[in-house]
Task: inverse folding
């Protein structure tokens, strides 16, 4: 019987609705046409969700010290170790490190257990690395962590300022909503993109400001002063509803155009154009993300932006407002339950005695709640390293790859006497150091709620039964709580009971005093919860949903004690590390279109590996020339903390002096590409968020003795090479390789990759040229191919991958290039329709195409999910440019 189930995408904070069709074992996904985040559309990651549901690599049974065990033994051990540590060293000797990828219900019970029952605030989350500067900025300005606007504002605005956000790749459906509005509204909203590098998002921009890394505060101080000079103050709003303006303005006055130009490195005419655009458009939304948050001045960057919106009264109205877009699917839900070490449940404050009493009473906690904030992520791992944390439970995050100073974090786990990890996959760089592994339910199995960037709560629903012995995260936490002696407070039988409790707490003694209120759902039953449609908060009890405002602060009522918004004086501070002779480059890190974080889930999808199959360092051509780095050569980046070895990608899109490296590759997929190892553990003093976008590094060209490319059916268990990167390909794996010392015997090496015993090897050798190729076959089936050369191997990758997936002759594959009448499609730009870069370039040239629509008509590219349209735009632009020189 075919069943249709509505659920929510588990990737970015856009929170798109997904309609799954379940037919026995077969599950397919499509966009939920009725979901107000995406109205039926999905980006490439969302539409490949059915490809990441395989059980290969899943953690399906509890494990203790590497050995499979049963739940009772694992849970007893966790409870006992935590109890022992608390008894011997006090509650602050234990900690939880959790994640914005937990459901609200999981997060709620984790926080309740630590703050309410263990009696410590040592619970922090990977949101510290992600949203905490926004949380801090919101709280300073609004008195609450409130995202005021909604997605419609992006369509209704006349101007969108996208700063520190690669929306085209990181929130593709929001980007598409903007792109579509521009088509329908004759180019409105205009878009300004502020980013030190040119990205796919820049393709849509009317103006791209390639500012110096970390200089946003100066730029927005200059904007505040420009608004003042243009008399754009909303005087009534400012007078009635804000305080602290004069000090903020006094600071802004120091920022003349010349000074801003000098600090940001931007040409004065571009600055003037930017300021004039903002002055001219009252309907202005400023969207910001990690280029703002992940900074040692992150909270100040946020407040510098908020100041400009408060000044012009551009908040709480249709088509305007500051908009912090959240990264993880439940970043917002985690904030709602108070998952950060300095927050309390239901948007209450840990440093507020009345709030502590309220929550403590509500939970019936055995002792007063801790009044001292817990350790924030970076400090928490320092405490594990120096022995203060003796038992640590990590849930749904991979800190050995994502925290700054990642090698130190790995050492911290090695030193910590007791580490527990709850995960959905078995092998991760973090799990390798856990004493206990607990198998959690994954997307498509778990059951609960998430909140997206516009405060909309949607259900994730199970599509199939739990595989193996995996359990819901909330249940695992409650199982441990019960064994620690707190059975009654954690006796939930269904996630709806947790959600109802959370909703009741949000309404307790609230009456409009706090922003977060979903008490309309305080009495929700399991059946109602099953049917729950997406809704936006606030949703207080006793009021009709339609009477609720869609936006906060239209009424000018903020959540500070005097209910006024605060202007915050922000002074410009450069990133903590300044490039010097030893470390002359600023290292910028971020995301790619088709991968999700540490690739534990997306890394296994063939479709998602076709876009970019290997880690790289993108650097400016002038820097590359100076370093002697050649296209497709290797480059080593390093500093006192660590080192990575990456493929060089040379591109005008980088500023001189900046290098960009994607965050995704781990020891599971590459030899040496964990870029977080190079990030200094420097944090914003207000938010505690690390500066993940501005480390300083040395760069060096590396001249390998050999390069190689291989195709294998099985994933090799071990690869003996200085450089390698593995990716899925139809029919097996593709591997990029390079070595520093000459290969003693290429044939032996190739066989070690293929992992097959006896097979027929068709080989080509040119010992003088240092080249070798072979194709392995058995009983007519090709099992592997290997191409070695002293320079980057000229194999037509996309063509070879296709030939490897189809029945083909060893000799044809050995050539490494398509036959004369065929063409290598090139790296896949459109993975939905399977269109490569060469196919698009040929079409542009041969058919004289001049628009993305024409290219779509001719090749199909861009007609699937649409995530690739900005890249097609860029190919078109480059081709046009090439034609004029
Ligand atoms: N495909 C994909 N999408 C994702 C994710 C993923 O892993 N893959 N992860 C999700 C998560 S958790 C998050 S937090 C979001 C992140 O979404 P984004 O914040 O959009 O993504 P990033 O690539 O981390 O960084 C954004 C941009 O900040 C720029 N930047 C660096 N330094 C500065 C600076 O000083 N000033 C300014 N103005 N810009 C700067 C970088 O060049 C980069 O282009 O993405 C979410 N969506
Ligand atoms: N240098 C640098 N570092 C960064 C960033 C950057 O831009 N640059 N970005 C930072 C940001 S914004 C973020 S959000 C983090 C992300 O960093 P992480 O949170 O470390 O990355 P993920 O790969 O998402 O890790 C999630 C883990 O949880 C597992 N998992 C997935 N679903 C579930 C589930 O339902 N239950 C359980 N128990 N486990 C599950 C996955 O298999 C995976 O191991 O990285 C941060 N680190
Ligand atoms: S935009 Fe984000 S939430 Fe929507 S389908 Fe893509 S990854 Fe999923
Ligand atoms: Mo994030």
Result:
């Amino acid at each position: 019987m075919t069943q249709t189930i509505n659920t929510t995408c588990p990737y970015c904070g856009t929170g798109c609705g997904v309609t799954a069709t379940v037919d026995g074992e077969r599950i397919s996904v499509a966009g939920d046409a009725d979901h107000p985040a995406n109205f039926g559309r999905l980006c490439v990651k969302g539409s490949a969700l059915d490809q990441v549901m395989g059980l290969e690599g899943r953690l399906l049974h509890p494990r203790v010290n590497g050995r499979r065990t049963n739940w009772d033994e694992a849970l007893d051990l966790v409870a006992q170790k935590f109890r022992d540590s608390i008894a011997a060293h006090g509650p602050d000797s234990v900690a939880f490190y959790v994640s914005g990828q937990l459901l609200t219900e999981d997060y709620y019970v984790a926080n309740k257990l630590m703050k309410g029952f263990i009696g410590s605030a040592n619970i922090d989350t990977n949101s510290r690395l992600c949203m905490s500067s926004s949380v801090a900025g919101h709280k300073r300005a609004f008195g609450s962590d409130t995202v005021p606007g909604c997605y419609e504002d992006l369509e209704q605005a006349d101007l969108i300022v996208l700063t520190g956000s690669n929306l085209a790749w990181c929130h593709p459906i929001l980007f598409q909503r903007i792109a579509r509005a521009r088509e329908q509204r004759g180019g409105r909203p205009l878009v300004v993109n502020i980013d030190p590098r040119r990205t796919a998002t820049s393709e849509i921009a009317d103006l791209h400001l390639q500012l110096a890394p970390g200089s946003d505060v100066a730029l927005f101080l200059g904007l505040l002063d420009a608004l003042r000079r243009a008399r754009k103050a909303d005087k009534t709003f400012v007078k009635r509803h804000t305080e602290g303006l004069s000090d903020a303005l006094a600071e802004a006055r120091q920022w003349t155009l010349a000074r801003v130009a000098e600090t940001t490195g931007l040409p004065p005419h571009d600055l003037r154009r930017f300021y004039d655009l903002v002055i001219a458009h009252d309907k202005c939304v400023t969207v910001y993300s990690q280029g703002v948050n992940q900074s040692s001045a992150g909270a100040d960057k946020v407040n510098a932006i908020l100041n400009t919106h408060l000044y012009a009264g551009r908040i709480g109205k249709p088509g305007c407002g500051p908009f912090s877009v959240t990264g993880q699917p439940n970043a917002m839900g985690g904030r709602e339950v108070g998952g950060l070490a300095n927050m309390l449940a239901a948007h209450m404050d840990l440093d507020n005695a009345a709030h502590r009493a309220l929550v403590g009473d509500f939970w019936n906690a055995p002792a007063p709640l801790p009044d001292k904030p817990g350790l924030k992520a970076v400090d928490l791992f320092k405490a594990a390293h120096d022995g203060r944390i003796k038992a640590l439970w990590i849930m749904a995050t991979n800190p050995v790859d994502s925290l700054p100073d990642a090698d130190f974090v790995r050492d911290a786990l090695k030193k910590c006497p007791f580490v527990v990890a709850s995960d959905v996959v078995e092998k991760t760089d973090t799990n390798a150091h856990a004493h206990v592994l607990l198998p959690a339910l994954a997307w498509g199995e778990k059951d609960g709620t998430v909140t997206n960037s516009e405060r909309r709560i949607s259900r994730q629903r199970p599509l199939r039964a739990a595989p193996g012995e995996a359990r819901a995260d909330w249940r695992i936490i409650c199982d441990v709580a019960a064994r620690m002696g707190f059975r009654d407070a954690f006796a939930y039988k269904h996630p709806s009971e947790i959600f109802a409790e959370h909703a009741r707490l949000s309404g307790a003694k609230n009456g409009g005093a706090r922003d977060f209120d979903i008490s309309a759902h305080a009495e929700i039953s399991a059946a109602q919860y099953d049917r729950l449609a997406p809704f936006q908060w606030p949703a207080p009890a006793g009021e009709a949903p339609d009477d609720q405002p869609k936006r906060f602060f239209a009424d000018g009522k903020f959540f500070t004690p005097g209910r006024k918004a605060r202007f915050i004086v922000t002074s410009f501070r450069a990133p903590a590390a300044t490039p010097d002779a030893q470390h002359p480059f600023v290292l910028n890190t971020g995301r790619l279109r088709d991968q999700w974080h540490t690739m534990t889930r997306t890394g296994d999808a063939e479709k998602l590996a076709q876009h970019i199959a290997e880690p790289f360092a993108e650097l400016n051509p002038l820097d590359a020339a100076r370093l002697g780095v050649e296209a497709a050569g290797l480059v080593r980046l390093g500093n006192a903390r660590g080192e990575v070895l990456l493929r060089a990608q040379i591109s005008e899109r980088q500023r001189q002096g900046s290098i960009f490296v994607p965050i995704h590759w781990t020891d599971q997929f590459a030899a040496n590409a964990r870029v977080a190892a190079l990030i200094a553990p420097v944090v914003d003093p207000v938010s505690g968020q690390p500066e993940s976008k501005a480390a300083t590094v040395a760069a060096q060209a590396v001249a390998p003795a050999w390069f190689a490319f291989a195709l294998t059916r099985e994933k090799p268990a071990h690869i003996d090479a200085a450089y390698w990167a593995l990716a899925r390909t139809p029919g097996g794996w593709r591997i990029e390789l390079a070595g520093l010392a000459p290969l003693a015997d290429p044939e032996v090496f190739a066989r070690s990759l293929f992992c097959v015993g006896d097979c027929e090897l068709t080989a080509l050798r040119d010992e003088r040229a240092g080249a070798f190729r072979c194709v392995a076959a058995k009983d007519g089936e090709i099992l592997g191919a290997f191409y070695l050369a002293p320079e980057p191997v000229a194999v037509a990758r996309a063509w070879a991958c296709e030939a490897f997936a189809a029945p083909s002759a060893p000799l044809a594959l050995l050539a490494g290039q398509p036959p004369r009448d065929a063409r290598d499609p090139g790296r896949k730009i459109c993975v939905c329709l399977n269109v490569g870069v060469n196919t698009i370039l040929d079409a542009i040239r041969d058919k004289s195409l001049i628009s993305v629509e024409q290219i779509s008509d001719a090749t199909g590219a861009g007609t699937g999910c649409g995530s690739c349209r900005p890249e097609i735009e860029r190919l078109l632009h480059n081709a046009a440019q090439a034609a004029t020189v």
Notes: The chain has a mean pLDDT of 96. The CA atoms of residues 141 and 619 lie 38 Å apart. The chain has 30 helices and 36 strands. The two ends are 61 Å apart (CA to CA).
